[in-house]
Amino acid sequence: MRIQTQSGPRMKWRTYLVVTLLALCTALPARAHLGPPYPIMQDRKIGPFTVSVWANPDTGLGSFFVVIDPPKGGAVPSDMKVQVAVQPVSGRLPEKAYGAWREKLRDRVEFKADVPFDKEEEWRIRILLTSQQGTGEADTNVQVTPPGLGRWDLLLFALPFVGVGVLWFKAMKTKLGRRKAARKQTQRTAM
């Protein structure tokens, strides 16, 4: 008596199909930003400078990264001051400006500002540049998002590892079952 199992290309195809369907069926819709900063303003002219702004606007404390490219043949002045001014689009709070500090980077000039957000809603963001070479401002709107799922983050991010563990235990159980069956078969043929 031989135990036959399916293997080969047909079984691999079925396995890939099942895994793909499971991944699609269990996918959650993206509700909020979770992760690294993303661009909210790119290559905007503010005075003589070209500015790009990357943000991680989470409730609690949001981060803004202002990257400044100097004019051709020039440099970003050392006296450059950058401010990030924020106000809810609804107007429920007055505008408040936060100073940014210069990051120490070799290949570009970048300023960082941390801004507190008290509520998940759309906010108006103004970037203000001041130096002896020139001043200027640019604005855009940003949707402030929750910082994550709170306590549920751990469970959500642990699920893939739990799944791999379950699959590993199932594979070990199957392997032990096959060994026991092979031993019984050997004992029967020996009698």
How many individual β-strands? Answer: 9
| Major β-sheet profile | 5 strands, antiparallel
Helix content: 25-40%
Can you identify the CATH superfamily of one domain? Domain of unknown function DUF4426
Low-confidence parts, pLDDT < 50 over ≥5 residues? 29-33
Question: How much of the polypeptide forms β-strand, as a percent range?
Answer: 35-45%
Q: Compute the gyration radius: what is it?
A: 29 Å
Number of helices: 2
General form: elongated
In order across it, which strands form the biggest sheet?
1-2-3-7-6
Outline:
29% of the residues lie in helices and 36% in strands.
Descriptive labels:
four-stranded antiparallel β-sheet; Immunoglobulin-like; alpha+beta
3D architecture notes:
This protein is of the alpha+beta class. It has a domain at 38-143: Domain of unknown function DUF4426 (Immunoglobulin-like, Sandwich). The protein contains 2 helices and 9 strands, in the order H-E-E-E-E-E-E-E-E-E-H. It has helices at 9-25, 152-190; strands spanning 38-46, 49-56, 60-69, 81-88, 96-99, 101-103, 109-117, 122-130, 135-143. The protein starts with 8 loop residues before the first helix and ends with a helix.
Task: Outline the secondary-structure elements.
Layout: H1 9-25, E1 38-46, E2 49-56, E3 60-69, E4 81-88, E5 96-99, E6 101-103, E7 109-117, E8 122-130, E9 135-143, H2 152-190
Antiparallel strand pairs: 1-2, 2-3, 3-7, 4-5, 4-8, 6-7, 8-9
